[in-house]
Amino acid sequence: MTDKKNAHKNKKDILIIDVRGASVAAAYATLGNTVEISRVMRANFVGADAQGLVAGMTAALEALLTPYAALGAARVHVVLGTPWHHAKIRTIQSTSDKSAPITAHTVAERVQNYKNEAPPAPGRTDIEAAAFETSVNDYPTALTHGVSGTSLGINLYESEADTTTTEALTRTIGKHLPHAAVVWHTFPLVAAGALRVMTQESAFAIADFDADVTDITVIERGAAVYRASFPTGYRAVESAAGTDGATRLALLGRGELSSEESGATRAAITPVIEAWLKDLTDTLVASADLIPIPRTVYLVTESAARDIMVESTCQGSLGLSCSAIEAPFIQKWVTLGEAATYDVPLSLAAVFFHIEAAQGVIYSS
Q: What is the pTM of this model?
């Protein structure tokens, strides 16, 4: 009985909101010894310009949140994908003439000092400042125990969001969950934090293939060390596929088109995919200035073009191994509760928050 009480006590319920380029989603996550998601919903939106995108996104979220109002939530975690964030990775270096103690507290202090010296750009709000990797005297260390050294290097992931976006989201969430604390995150950090544990790999790239932008994050030794993006997303491929492009691509991926239809569809989308693959290749090659080119790419997308993009990436000039993050992979980490599906971005976020809680490491502001 005591074990059951402790297990229940250790459970934590949160509401996760995932905001992407053309859709917004929400789900409850129960974090305990395992991760369970429930009440998963995703809604699409459109917008002709930046202002229209914010209006479309908040209207979709407004409708989405209505069923959650009666259930309540003490804590809401908002994960911003592209184009809703501005993120970069940089290294902070500090040196001293004499050897001095260096601890996790030292790193936190250096990061805070850096944030104070480099406030967000006008019209933006700080989201995260995460020390993904630290090195003392040029040797990587997790700093589980304090060490002494003369130099400290911090691999820092930092992100901002437009204040108009965070204010619009805060107002919308507040209408339905007025007492909830809102915590902000960005998808590159969330995906990197989850996948470095889920894959047990130390070097790989994440390609977030969203509506109009592909976001690339490169992981080396378990740390996010390089990121870039380019303006091609799944809507370009779907548009090239013609009328009902999403449906046609899904059928193509499953091998359910006739030979004639398959050939015509591949011919139509090939120029777009080849341009996308060139941008991906150029991005990974550019990362080689810092680290070896990763040979494994994990594709994150909700698009019907998923299977075609994986196939094309594996056939590219770099000889990459490419896998899409989908239900069979997530099932090892997430269980489904009431009215749930394996929504990929929401599932990765749930795993990330579970890891964050278990390790006692908070990456968000």
A: 0.91
